[in-house]
Design goal:
alpha/beta; DNAb Helicase, Chain A; Rossmann fold; 9-stranded mixed β-sheet; 18 helices; 50% helix
Length: 456
């Protein structure tokens, strides 16, 4: 038998050969150890090539023989393999069995092997980062930073072992959740939007959900989203992160201030404030100072950049309640070429869905609608439909919830209602993957860009 010395092992790459031998030895003496190892490891987690081959052969034999594995079968299939022969062939396989007295510690050994594999991937990633950092051009820096963040995230995800879950194991948590909802009927299961009738239909914004809020220009998409952020942060003390690719942070803050103070935004912009306005403004500013609302007005962000910034903030404040993106069509894709825009929007939409799932946070993206609503006639003029989502049908497919804003007054022939400072607005729940659809009536106060429940 060939003895493996430390000089034969590349000490630069993290590894633990004895732990690898202990895992393989355990698998050769107990069927249950094979099942535990399979749940934790893949062949690529082993450092030695011979160990990769042995692990794969044990798994294949286990599969072929419906769980029956022994050293004789493994040796028979591997006797002509050069890597195994180099280490000693059947003598080496026997030594693996002699490595362990019992297979009861296989999970512990498997974890050591897994951790070393993760460290090797980190080392490989580090080498690649250094290589990229010394060869890229200035214009490619953002792309490399995005790739690095995604690379590290992917490696960290490999340490979180996921597999099939028995439905029987889900029963008690599910019943506990149902009972909690039953005991708190007045509370919605997700994060409340602050609009009671809407929350009755949607059940609030749930973790990992991707939500689209869409509308034609001047229907109040941004105002509606900011009102939701305001309600969640102030009424429910949940942190909200807003990526604004259209408006600056200052513009967003002024909208928050005017909405909370119920002061006309044009008076704030132009400085024509009355004595009555000042107390309302200072009171609103005091409330907003306590709000956990975070604004990022960086332009042309990629999804990976957003994900990286959101993850960093989530770590700093111990949990984001909601992410809002204003708006989807302003986001950058990989190609930046207009002829591929529909494909890019589909890719962006899918990436936002994945971001919501990975971060376990509801993500709201504003979206434009096509001009189709204006082409309709009769009582359907201006009324949006799912098919009106602009540039890609993938948005409709990816979204868990689609809300569309419709202001009937905008399409009245006389235009009198459209010029009124207060108008009726409908929020159309056009898609709800986990519930019913419907229409919610709200009031829109144009002067201070605020939606309120119609019953107020």
């Amino acid at each position: 038998m060939v003895t493996i010395s430390n000089s034969q092992i590349d000490l630069i790459a993290p590894n633990n050969i004895e732990a690898e031998r202990a895992v393989l030895g355990s698998m050769l003496i107990e069927k249950e150890a094979i099942e535990i190892a399979m749940d934790t490891l893949s062949e690529n987690d082993f450092y030695l090539t011979a160990h990769k081959i042995i692990f794969r052969e044990i798994i294949d034999t286990y599969d072929r023989n419906k769980g029956d594995v022994d050293i004789i079968l493994i040796n028979d299939h591997l006797k002509s393999n050069a890597e195994i022969t180099r280490l000693g062939g059947s003598v080496y396989l026997t030594s693996l069995v002699d490595t362990v007295i019992t297979a009861s510690n296989v999970e512990y050994y498997a974890k050591i092997v897994k951790d070393k594999a993760v460290l090797r991937e980190l080392e490989h990633a580090g080498r690649k980062i250094i290589g990229d950092a010394t060869t890229i051009g200035i214009s490619d820096v953002s792309e490399v930073v995005d790739k690095v963040a995604q690379m590290i995230f992917n490696i960290s995800e490999k340490r979180v072992l996921k597999g099939p879950v028995s439905i029987s194991d889900m029963i008690n948590p599910a019943l506990d959740n149902i009972e909690a909802i039953y005991q708190n009927k007045e509370q919605v299961p997700g994060i409340p939007s602050g609009f009671a009738d809407l929350d009755k239909i949607t059940g609030g914004f749930k973790k990992s959900n991707f939500i689209i809020i869409a509308g034609r220009p001047s229907t109040g998409k941004t105002s509606f989203c900011l009102n939701i952020a305001e309600n969640i942060a102030l009424l429910h003390n949940k942190p909200v992160l807003i990526f604004s690719l259209e408006m600056s942070n200052d513009e967003l803050f002024n909208r928050f201030l005017c909405s909370q103070a119920r002061v006309a935004s044009d008076r704030v912009r132009n400085g024509y404030l009355s004595k009555d306005d000042w107390p309302r403004i200072t009171t609103a500013a005091g409330k907003l100072k306590e709000a956990k609302i975070f604004l990022d007005d960086s332009s042309s962000l990629h999804v990976l950049e957003m994900k990286s910034r959101a993850r960093r903030l989530d770590s700093e404040i111990k949990g984001i309640g909601l992410i809002i993106i204003d708006y989807l069509q302003l986001m950058s894709g990989k190609t930046g070429r207009s002829e591929y825009r529909q494909q890019e929007v589909a890719e962006i939409s899918r990436s936002l869905k994945v971001m919501a799932k990975d971060l376990k946070v509801p993500v709201i993206a504003l979206s434009q609608l096509s001009r189709e609503p204006e082409k309709r006639t009769g009582n359907q003029v201006g009324r949006p439909r799912l098919a009106d989502l602009r540039e890609s049908g993938a948005i409709e497919q990816d979204a868990d919830l689609v809300l569309m804003i419709y202001q009937p007054a905008m399409y009245k022939p006389d235009g009198i209602e459209a010029s009124s400072p207060i108008c009726d607005a409908e929020i159309l729940v056009a898609k709800n993957r986990n519930g019913k659809t419907g229409t919610v009536n709200l009031r829109f106060f144009k002067e201070y860009t605020r939606f309120e429940n119609a019953s107020k």
